[in-house]
Amino acid sequence: MSGIAENKSILRCEEIEVSYGAFKAVTNVTYEFKPGFLYGLIGPNGAGKTTLMNALSGRAQLSKGRVFLNDQEITGQSPHARTWAGLGRSFQITQIFAEMTVFENLRLAAQAHRFRLQPFWRPVGKFKEIANDAERVLSEIGLEGFGHVNAGSLSHGDQRALEIGLALLSEPKVLLLDEPLAGVGHDVAEKAVELIRKVSQGRTVLLIEHNMDVVMEISDEIIVMLAGEILASGEAETIKRDPRVRTAYLGEEE
Amino acid sequence: MNAQRLMALIVAIVISVPLMFPEGHSIGMVNAILIWSIFAIGFDLVFGVAGMLSFGHAAFFGVGAYTLSLLTMRMGWDFLPALGAAGVIGGALALVFSYFAIRVSGLFFALLTLALSQLIYIMAGTKLRMLTGGVDGIAGVPRPDLFGIDFYDDGNYYFFLLALFVLALLISGLIRISPLGQALKAIKSNEVRAEQIGFNVQRLQRSVFTISGIYAGVSGGLLASLIFYVGPQMLHWSTSGDVVIMVLLGGMGTLFGPILGVAIFEIMREWLSTQTSHWYGILGLIFIISTIGMPKGIAGLIQQLWNRIMPGGKS
Amino acid sequence: MSLLEMQNCDVFYGKAQALHDVSITVGEGEIVSLIGRNGAGKSTLLKAIMGLNPIASGKRMYDGRDATRVSTEMLGRSGIAFVPEDRRIFATLSVDENLRIATVMGRKGAWNLERVYELFPRLKERMTSRGDTLSGGEQQMLAVGRGLLTNPKLLLMDEPTEGLAPLVVEDLIKAMALINAEGVAILLVEQNLKVPLKLATRQYLIDNGHIRWSGKTEDLLAEREKIEGLISL
Amino acid sequence: MSTIVIGLSMGMLLFLLAAGLTLIFGMLRVINFAHGSLYMLGAYLAFQMVNVTGNFWAGLVAAPIIAAAIGALMERVALRPVYNRDHVYQLLLTFGFILVLDEAVRIIWGLEYKQMYPPELFAGAIEMFGSSVPSYRLFIIGFGAAVSAALFFILDRSRYGMIIRAASGDPEMVRTLGINVSLVRTGVFSFGAGLAALGGAVAGPLFPIELGMGFNIIIDSFIVVIIGGLGNIRGAVLAALLIGMTRALGYSYAPSWVDFLTFILLIGTLILRPEGLFSRKGRTA
Amino acid sequence: DEPESFKIGAVLPFSGPYGIIGKGMKQGAELAIEMRGGKVLGKPVEVTWEDSETKPQPAVQKATRLISSGAQMIFGAASSASTAALQGITEQRKIPLLVTISADDKITRKNGYRYTFRTSNTLGMEIRMALEFTKAAGLKKVYGVGADYAVTRDGWDAYKAAAEAAGVEIVGVDYPPLGNRDYSVIIDKISKTDADGVILIVTGSDGVTFLKQAGQAGLGKNKVLFGPVLQDEVLAAAVGPDAIGAASGVRYHYSLDNPANKAFVEAYRAKYNEWPDSFAGEAFDGMSWFLDAVDSTNSWDREEWVKAFEGSVRENSVEGRKEMRACDHQALQVGLWGVVEKGEAPYPDLKMKITNIFQPEVLFPECEE
Ligand SMILES: Nc1ncnc2c1ncn2[C@@H]1O[C@H](COP(=O)(O)OP(=O)(O)OP(=O)(O)O)[C@@H](O)[C@H]1O
Ligand SMILES: Nc1ncnc2c1ncn2[C@@H]1O[C@H](COP(=O)(O)OP(=O)(O)OP(=O)(O)O)[C@@H](O)[C@H]1O
Ligand SMILES: [Mg+2]
Ligand SMILES: [Mg+2]
């Protein structure tokens, strides 16, 4: 178990529900996330994992329930306000600034984090600190040589790495990662896992991943969703053995 | 030197024609180019940089023109404060528009701004006619009265306009490369991501919309004083259409492109119309051909030619 | 006889060369896999086969004929299907429409709507939802289902298991084996090596736009060390 | 009561004017500002046909066909190269079309007004609810209903709508399915152009046929398209009827506010339900 | 130093829907110059024709350029908005502006624009003609329809007050928007009233649309449709047979029986092979008159021209006597009123028949601000 284990929760959702018309993508989810923990969120396709993340980060509207960050209620706040409050995320379907270079992508994230009001009286290049932030993360995500490449022409796997980099730059207390390893080559995946481990130091991470080897290995606690609800949660070993999880998601082990 | 500088040079040449030929007949046209350029530069902040297609800028342009005219003619204000007020009112109206319009995006944004500005157009022509002079407008809009210079002389007025133009260009150039400009580009590129990294998207959009409303208000006021007249035609959506066309023709999202677009548009109007009575059709053909042949407008073409002439000259 | 043959292909993005002198073949009814690290050029090659990336030099032979100049839609009509890595679901179409559009050209074969819904029951549940509201995994299923519904002779699959739950991956692997058994050739790109190792008979290893190695799957496992040395860096 | 009949006819007329735009706008995502010019062209073509053959119906048939051919040409030559660019470039293009079409009409038919009359069959007026309603108005109601039914059948029931919607998002992917996207696009644009001309031919007997006649209807048509929901034929019919009724009532009680009412309706729709008042599904994400 | 030539800058609509106005005006003015031997003050007249696009900005821009390249006078602008815009620049540059079509009353007013002269009708006088017609035709109940803008509203108010004073009952009034597309509801509404006359204060295609639709509903059968500028030959041709019986003010007409007009019509038909429309007639008239006034000064001083023109009287204009009132630079003249009737060759199928000629005394009030 990593980080400072306090009893107080850093992120908490109470009976939240997200519905689209008659369809409920998330129902009645209540959970307390403890500071410093790395949570693995698993479940079948369409179980509502991404939607839960959307609800936490403000992209999906709640039809019921409340969300707290650091005991402050953030229900109804916009995504950027939550980012400012310390909630960062990556997306399952890559969201980058495709027409801009990789460096510019990162610099944007840095500037969004540094300035509440975006200055308009000085060229962006004159702000050394944000360039430094961007450079640092550029090497952290292993894209050193690619600073001047247009983000849109990166290969799929490299775009996934950039995706994480953008989330990191807002220096979040709570980091939500939606399938960061999808499409990342198996050789690089090990490095990526290391990266996740590293960035989870001192922060809370919620990780959605279908790669069971990774999830089981690095999670402090695992949450299983099914049909919009939390089916089970607990340590890796318990979850692995849970018959309900096996039939709904994992399948029989070879 | 790079393509940017080349464009700057072309712009500089076009706008300094009156300096080289002070007796020429081009001053009136260059003055109009300067004024429309201010409008287009400001418009491109919204259109080219932030990626919002507005069909409502005619409202800010026209309202600026009315503001200046009414304040100077009916309230006895001096020109400069009235011009400032034109900018303020243009910006304020843009801010009001943005509260309605920013809730939707893309084509819906374009049509909502269009509808809002048409409402103002209709108002000005009918219900507000006591104020606006109705369909026939108000004639006799004054020019500045400063330092004892006769600005009613187009040659002198040119310098006044040139100063404002340079100022407008500098401010817009700075905004583009500032963090604000970069943030706007980010929103254009990917709104979801921009919001997630912490940009207050709506506030940023509102602010750039307001800034360009100020540009539009000021340029509208200037146009009224250039032609001594203001009328509801300036509020009509086809005025918004004109500025869109100019910016597209010149190259959206570039600093100098919109100016080139304005220049071509105005020169075409002046020159072609003296050549043939079929100039509308020819202008149409030019639009069609340049859309097909110049994917990024004149600015793009210059960039492309530059790259061909100076291979490997990456900037 | 080989169904598809790419001969000495070069592909560029602008001035940057992404594929160098690449040659591969896929036999009738064969599963071939293409592996390589991120940015190696796998997707570029699949798109080149589909006619979405122009081939600067080299040849595309399909079904025994020179198809270098054949357009994407003609390739599609003559039985090549493409499941792209970023899914490319039609956002404004419903799930059902996303599938039905693949049947418009009416190629005959074993696949029809019912069968796809059987393979991915989840899609049936979401039948009327718009494509862009689907979860990532659901979109992946949809992309695969759409590819199948054209009843192809050759299926190009770019990371088809990305984002799928383990159970669904198993179903998909079974389905691929099945359709292969029905005579469809598959060219498979996968990061998750388990899948190609299980399914493919032959492997191509691509790195930096060059084919570095090709051979039987058994050989790949046997010569593993030597092959890893072939990959740059 | 007669106001309702007239309102209905105004609505159907609006629908006929806007149908081509809905189609092109909704399906190709092309903001065809030249719609008004095609409409005008349709009126002139119909006039010409009537002049030559003396038969209204000949004009009603020939005008759309010729305009469709011109539309196909426009699409092939000019629109095709710009699909994969930002949609805004189509603005410049369609503005160009306006000028060229207007010039062509000016060269061919000159500046004088032209006129057309309703066909014999619908020349008179019919006494209804204590007013005499021109029977041509009743023809418009019937004809509009027939056209909308046909369109509904062709578009919503057939797969063309589906293909076009898919292609407007990702044409490349549609091509991989073996579908000839450009052919479908040409078809849609040319069909839309034909519909615009049909609108012009139907409107010919009601309005002066003149060079400026296309300009005003663009905005009207946009309003119908937006309120109805992009590319939604059923929505367009309902929206047109709604606006027709609103206007008819407006003209009876407060004529000078008619334009306001229409715009307020549009603004309200855009703010409250940007996907259109009559779109079938709520928009998601 | 005298210039080489007498330069006239003409700013008229040539492109777009109003091109027809520009064409008529150009032909009329050209003939006026030709018939005086192409000379003024002994120098050849040189006209530069510019397209105003019916928009104020291009109009002013082009006028500015014309002036800076030496134009001695500006001729034109068709729409009142463009004319108003031109007044700003001509006043500034002290260049005479000759207006022969724009009808907005504000263009000529007491102590208004020193350099603007209008030789053609004002809307105010045309409204008064409509009033005189109402009385002459014995209409008792009148319904009004006006395009919704300032000039028409003012005109209507004036008409209403005077008509009521003369014992005419005003049944109702509607102001549909300018550029209105469909009058059918209003027509239906009017048909249900017992009005015996309908005054239409609309121009151009709005009037055409109304008459077409009114014809289809049979409105004209028992009501007289009339208006200050409702019809002329051009517009009647656009309406078709439904126009027959509509009564309207006429700005100029080729059928006027006086020697000057006969000469003009003959020359015009010889040169252009068509009947002069009111744009051509008014332009011819204004241009000849102004150039005569210039010639009479024998001077190149524009102030002299202004002085000569104001107060000048033209006994033999194509419309009879005209007098350029000094106080507001508006030409006093008779008002022509006519009705659309079927025409026989060589006349067009539908032509105006002049039914009334009203004297200036009843049409022009005292000069007022
Ligand atoms: N905006 C929306 N409108 C309608 N339905 C939606 C919307 N967003 C999500 N859904 C539905 O909600 C369900 C849950 O989606 P979600 O993306 O949360 O799944 P997930 O657990 O992340 O799955 P995966 O592992 O495939 O990514 C899906 O069935 C999806 O179709
Ligand atoms: N549209 C593009 N424009 C320019 N360069 C591109 C483009 N797409 C890919 N590239 C470059 O071509 C190379 C090969 O990319 P490709 O997408 O084929 O890799 P890949 O093997 O599929 O990788 P991944 O496993 O990450 O999907 C990469 O260096 C990439 O940056
Ligand atoms: Mg998900
Ligand atoms: Mg790839």
Automatic annotation (TrEMBL), chain A:
Cited InterPro entries: AAA+_ATPase (IPR003593), ABC_AA/LPS_Transport (IPR051120), ABC_transporter-like_ATP-bd (IPR003439), ABC_transporter-like_CS (IPR017871), BCA_ABC_TP_C (IPR032823), P-loop_NTPase (IPR027417)
Domain named ABC transporter: residues: 11-252
UniProt GO MF annotations: ATP binding
Superkingdom assignment: Bacteria
Family matches, as PROSITE patterns: ABC_TRANSPORTER_1, ABC_TRANSPORTER_2
Coiled coil: none
Pfam family, one: BCA_ABC_TP_C
Sorted UniProt keywords: ATP-binding, Nucleotide-binding, Transport
PANTHER family registered for this protein in UniProt: ABC TRANSPORTER ATP-BINDING PROTEIN (PTHR45772:SF3), CONSERVED COMPONENT OF ABC TRANSPORTER FOR NATURAL AMINO ACIDS-RELATED (PTHR45772)
The protein's name in its UniProt record: ABC transporter ATP-binding protein
Organism name: Sneathiella sedimenti
Lineage: Bacteria, Pseudomonadati, Pseudomonadota, Alphaproteobacteria, Sneathiellales
UniProtKB/TrEMBL annotation, chain B:
Segments traversing the membrane: 6-21, 33-59, 79-100, 107-124, 157-175, 208-231, 243-267, 279-302
Keyword terms, alphabetized: Cell membrane, Membrane, Transmembrane, Transmembrane helix
Domain of life: Bacteria
Subcellular location: Cell membrane
Membrane topology: Multi-pass membrane protein
PANTHER family: ABC TRANSPORTER ATP-BINDING PROTEIN, HIGH-AFFINITY BRANCHED-CHAIN AMINO ACID TRANSPORT SYSTEM PERMEASE
Protein name per UniProt: Branched-chain amino acid ABC transporter permease
Biological source species: Sneathiella sedimenti
Automatic annotation (TrEMBL), chain C:
Keyword tags: Amino-acid transport, ATP-binding, Nucleotide-binding, Transport
SUPFAM superfamilies the record matches: P-loop containing nucleoside triphosphate hydrolases
KW ATP-binding (keyword) present: yes
Name of the protein described by the UniProt record: ABC transporter ATP-binding protein
Gene3D superfamilies: P-loop containing nucleotide triphosphate hydrolases (3.40.50.300)
Residue ranges of domain ABC transporter in the record: 4-233
Coiled coil region boundaries: none
SMART domains documented for this protein: AAA
Native source organism of the sequence: Sneathiella sedimenti
Gene Ontology molecular-function annotations: ATP binding
Annotated family: Belongs to the ABC transporter superfamily.
Source taxon at top rank: Bacteria
Species classification: Bacteria, Pseudomonadati, Pseudomonadota, Alphaproteobacteria, Sneathiellales
TrEMBL record, chain D:
Subcellular location: Cell membrane
Alphabetized UniProt keyword annotations: Amino-acid transport, Cell membrane, Membrane, Transmembrane, Transmembrane helix, Transport
Record InterPro entries: ABC_transp_permease, BCAA_transport_permease
Main localization category: membrane
Membrane topology: Multi-pass membrane protein
The protein's name in its UniProt record: Branched-chain amino acid ABC transporter permease
CDD domains referenced in this protein's UniProt entry, alphabetically: TM_PBP1_LivH_like
Transmembrane segments: 6-26, 33-50, 56-79, 91-109, 136-155, 183-207, 260-278
Family: Belongs to the binding-protein-dependent transport system permease family. LivHM subfamily.
Pfam families: BPD_transp_2
